[in-house]
Specification:
single chain, 167 residues, alpha+beta, 4 helices
Length: 167
């Protein structure tokens, strides 16, 4: 459904794989930079997605993402040898869902992270990179949007206050 969503994705077992907090600021390691870069590329894969505030943390990722209304029409060219006349067909682009976007992001990041483990000596992980589920909250008004944006921005400063294991 079109709208704004606050999403949190956690690394399995809250492993700190993406960097560290120093003096209230997030310092991304190479893996964290990769996560950020893959997030910034998500709109190329999903044109109906808008990126808002986000932050890669040592063991989780927060974002506000928007899904815009309406699928676009895509013109598909027929296979030239398939018909006597050279017609074009019109089809509706696939519907974008929060689960589809987050699933694709998690998959891409996992593949790239495994490459980093094999080729660059990144810290390995046990089984799966991400926890099975993610947190999703629909943002219903401007006040909620501002509160959540501020929460994301201040997340590194509040790192020690959070009640995460291993911190």
């Amino acid at each position: 459904q079109a709208g704004l969503y606050f999403i949190t994705i956690c690394v399995k077992d809250r492993e700190r794989l993406f960097g560290e907090i120093i003096d209230g600021k997030m310092n991304l390691n190479d893996a964290g930079i990769m996560v950020e870069n893959e997030w910034l590329k998500i709109t190329a894969r999903f044109p109906n997605v808008q990126l808002h505030q986000y932050i890669v943390m040592p063991n989780h990722f927060h974002t506000i993402m928007g899904i815009t209304v309406g699928a676009t029409l895509v013109v598909a060219h027929d296979n030239p040898g398939a018909h006597d006349n050279n017609r074009e067909t019109t089809r509706v682009a696939p519907i974008v869902t929060v689960g589809g976007v987050i699933g694709a992001f998690q998959s891409i990041v996992t593949v790239e992270y495994i490459r980093g483990v094999k080729n660059l000596g990144w810290q390995s992980f046990n089984g799966k990179l991400w926890q099975r589920n993610y947190y999703e909250h629909i943002i219903r008004n401007e006040q909620s949007y501002q509160r959540i944006s501020k929460y994301i921005i201040n997340n590194p400063k509040n790192w020690k206050k959070n009640n995460f294991p291993n911190e």
